Amino acid sequence: MSKLQVRRLSHDAILPTRAHPDDAGLDLYLLEPITIAPGEGVTAATGIAAAIPHGFVGMIADRSSMAKKGLKTAGGIIDSGYRGEIRIVLWNLSRETHSVAKGDRIAQLLVIPVALSAVEEVTSLEDTHRGSGGFGSTGN
User: Fold this and answer.
1) pTM of the complete model beyond 0.90
2) Is 3.40.50.300 the CATH number for 5-113?
């Protein structure tokens, strides 16, 4: 995949960018200003849609500058068949109200290859060293 097709849904929308050519994520920009109170979440508009290619997935990730303030994305998956607006769920985990201005970079979009495996029901799974050890099974 050499190019990601992106459509502006608003004339004010800013197309995704990379700060550096080898950055993994594309920065996504806020379409309208928002204010987020402590402990609250909002769904933020970007004003863009993208054609994630078949065999890939779009993943929404934090920008470190936002996370440093306590503003975290709730993550998100953009399937290759989705053509609607990319919206970002932002949560304020800090104890302060934060305002984010129109045009600020609010999240990153990672376009990653994905295995589209079929599901096969089996009666047992191959044994491994870890086995069924889950949360906290490897220590603190």
Assistant:
1) no
2) no
